[in-house]
Structures are given as C-alpha cells and as structure tokens.
Amino acid sequence: MGQEITHSHFKKSDFDHYRSKLDAELAWVEKWFDKRTQEKNKDSLHNENQSQLMVGFEMEICLIDQNGEPANCNAAFLEHLKDTSIVSQVSLELAQFNLELNSLVFRLTNKALSNLEQELERLWSLCNAVAEKINCKLLMVGTLPSLREEHLKLESISPMTRYKALNEQVLRSRKGRAIELNIQGSETLKSIHQDVMLESAATSFQLHLQMPFSRSIRYYNAAIILSAPIVAICANSPFLFGKALWCETRIPVFEQAVSVGGFDGAVFGPIKRVSFGSGYAQNSLLECFKENNEHYPILLPEVFDSSVDDLAHLNLHNGTVWRWNRPLVGYSECVEKNKQEKIRDYHVRLEHRIIPAGPTVVDSIANAALFYGAVTALANQYEIPEEKIPFVQAKENFYLSAKHGLKGKVTWISGQTLPLKALILDYILPMAKDGLNQLGISRKEIDYYLGIIEQRARNGQNGASWQRQYVVKYGKNMESLTLTYQKNQQSGRPVHEWSV
Fold first, then answer.
1. Does residue 338 sit in helix, strand or coil?
2. Dihedral of the CA atoms 199, 350, 60, 323 (nearest 10)?
3. In terms of DSSP H, where are the helices of 344-418?
4. Which end of the chain is least crowded, N or C, by CB within 10 Å?
5. pTM across the whole model
6. pLDDT in tens, 306-354
7. Does 3.30.590 match the CATH number of domain 12-55+161-460?
8. Do residues 94 and 257 make contact, with C-beta atoms less than 8 angstroms apart?
9. Would you list the domain boundaries of the chain?
10. Hey, how many other C-beta atoms are within 10 angstroms of the C-beta on 189?
11. Sign of the CA dihedral running 30, 34, 36, 37
C-alpha cells in the first residue's frame, strides 16, 4: 500500500486491464519460485548464509496536540520536514493524525540491534524537532487512548488518492453496507462506521525480515506459531473510545475496519482481507500469492506503465490483503561488475505485523530482538514445529493472547497448556537467545535487549498493563492518560520501569 495511485474512480475495463497485468506478474513469480525451488538443493542455496539476512521496520505514529487529542496536521508536518535528511523515510498514513517512519535496511548480524535502535532514535529525534515547530507532539502507541469516534470523520483522511480510492472500493465491495465494530473485552464496544477511517485507530511496528529462500516456509510458519507469545508480551492497545477492551485491541479493530472478504457470496463470509491467514505454507510461499489472486477481488486497479518483472501490480494487490504475517517478493538493484546495466536480485521477505507501536524506542528494538531471535531458532531447529501444533491451535493461541495478554494461557508445541508469562520466560526467551547467537549478534546486545523483555515479563508490565493500572488509579481521563504516557515515552525508560 506504499504505492501512490492517480485515480480514485475506476471502470470495469480498468479491472479487466489490471487483471491481465496481475496474472502475467503472478506467472512470472511462479516461474521464479520454480527455478529457485529446483536450485535449492544445491550447496550454494541450501547453505545460504544466515548472516545475509536483512531487516528493517515501519513505525506508524500518531500526532497529538497539547491537550493529548489527535492533531490533524500530517501534511503540515511533511511540509516542514521536506528540507531534512529523512524526508524520504516519512510518509502519510490514512488519517491526518498519522504518519509512518520507514527505516534503512540492515544486515542481521553483530551490532544489528543497536543499529536499528540508532536508526529509530534518529528518525524519532528529527521528527520530534519538527513536531515542536508546528506545536504538536508525537506518540507511539497501538491505539490512541484519547481517540473518540468524532475524530474519525472522512474529512480527516490524508490527502492521497490511494486512501480515497481504498475507502470507495471497500464500500463498493461491501455493497454500501456500513462497517460494524463489535469488540467484547473487559467492556463491550459497538459502533457503526460509514467509511474506513476506523483503520487509522490501529498503529503498529512492522518488522521486515529477508529470509533465506531455502528455509522461507519454515520462517513463515515459525512466525505464525510465535505470534501468540509475541503479541502477549508486546501488547499496548487496551482502550478504544474510552472502553477497556483487549490487551491488544488493535487486532480486532483492524480486522473489522477493513471488513471485506472474498468474491461474491464470500464478501461477508469467513475469508477476510485482514486475518491470521488460512493455514501454514506447505510447499512454497507461492501458495499465499496464489490465494491472494484467487480469493480476493482487486480493490485498486491502477494500471502502471511497468514491465512484468517490476511486479508493480502484484505488490499493490498483495498490499490490500493484510495477513498478520505477510510474505512479500522484492528485489534490490545493483550494477554488475564491468557492466553498465543494473541487475536485480529477487528475494522473499516476511512482514511481521503483530507488534503495536511503542511504548518507547528501546522497547521497540527489544521487541524486534525477541522476534528475530525466536523466529530464527524455531525455523532452524531439527524438529519441524508446525507438525506438532495445528494451525487452528496457533490461531486460537493468537487471539487468546491478544485478548488476555500476559495473564492468558495457550497450548504450546509440547501439547502443554502454559501461562503466557511462563512460556515467554522458560521457552521463548531462551529460544530467542539461541537464535540471536546463531545470527552472530553480539553477546552484549543479546543480554541488553532480551533483558528488557525478561524484566517486562517478570513484573508483568507492558504498555497495556501500565495503561490499565493508570486508569484504575486515576480514572478514565483518557487525555491525561495520553499525556502521561507521552511524557514517559519521551523519558526513554523502558515500560517495565514506568511508575503509575
């Protein structure tokens, strides 16, 4: 969805033209997968060096005013940012009170974690300086506590054609039917929305991982299994519209905000565009791209003047199917030695969308350390974990964890039902340490970042639990909660050290 488009209204011929482009690109990708699969038993591919793993992130943030309420000023923010070194790394999100920060790409080895922290801190610091100039504040949080329904009017949509088109096409797919939000948590929230602005209530810290092709299935399936403990320890979205809901309310919010299913009768059925997915990958990640093509109607039929191997139409379509773990095909370009023309190096990448934004820069990188380490260890262990835990169980674990956080229980690979706190301390953290060691991450960095996760797990205080404790002590003044949270965030202290 990072691609801008030029039209917000489309004719049937646009959909037909786009379909032909999409089919051609999928056929190209299928040939690429077949070629790589045939080669993967060769030593050069089978022993792909794990130090070649590449990583990056997207951090979605909120803009708030001096009273802690959403500030519709992202266009003014970008205008003030245009003469800085990071202008190309900041983009508009759906609502005028949202922005997205995009990192550079780093090799996952040695000091990669501190490099990621320095990168996020650099972006965060420069953006804070710009925010001061326009009299607003920045906030990293899963769901903005001070957000109210009246803040989500269509007039607050960002001035980009793709967002207007997305809204029009989602409502067209729903045949004009309103979007109904219904979340059962500590309290119950029901509301009706006539547009997709509800999506802007959910902001995340998305991690990217360029995977070894020969083990991409294992990495993808491992990420699915790990989604439950990851969302439990990272939860930071306990409130929406003043209601106490799930520990990670962002999960049901986003799933219901773009509530569009598959073709025809399935539009309101079980196949959803925002979901945990339909199963593990069996033989190739190509299965996910084929499923996107076969089960999900085209939402944004913008036709590009591009070659088949640019994959512009495939990537735009896949960008409108939001799995919580989303596989991607990408490429980097380089100039071949002694030649003038550029060559492309294609790869498979995983976008892990489970983690909410915040609470702090260092908490975010600790979350990244936990995921990158644990997914590496689980994907490379001798026994295949997805053969021991059915997909339906991994899916149930995920939603239970999003709802109950660190106070929940899940059924793990061993078949045991374990409290999430014990699972993280006794299984996931050791697994993450092992994975980071395999990657060549320095011992100092492993101890530092995973130490933050350990302390968070031991005292049971993540962003969600801190917000809930604040409300218990001071009542439901959501603006006060937002400003106190923002002050703690700016201190840089990890959330497990915050007092109430």
1. coil
2. 10
3. 361-380, 391-404
4. C
5. 0.95
6. 999 999 999 999 999 999 999 999 998 876 666 667 789 999 999 999 9
7. yes
8. no
9. 12-55+161-460
10. 19
11. positive
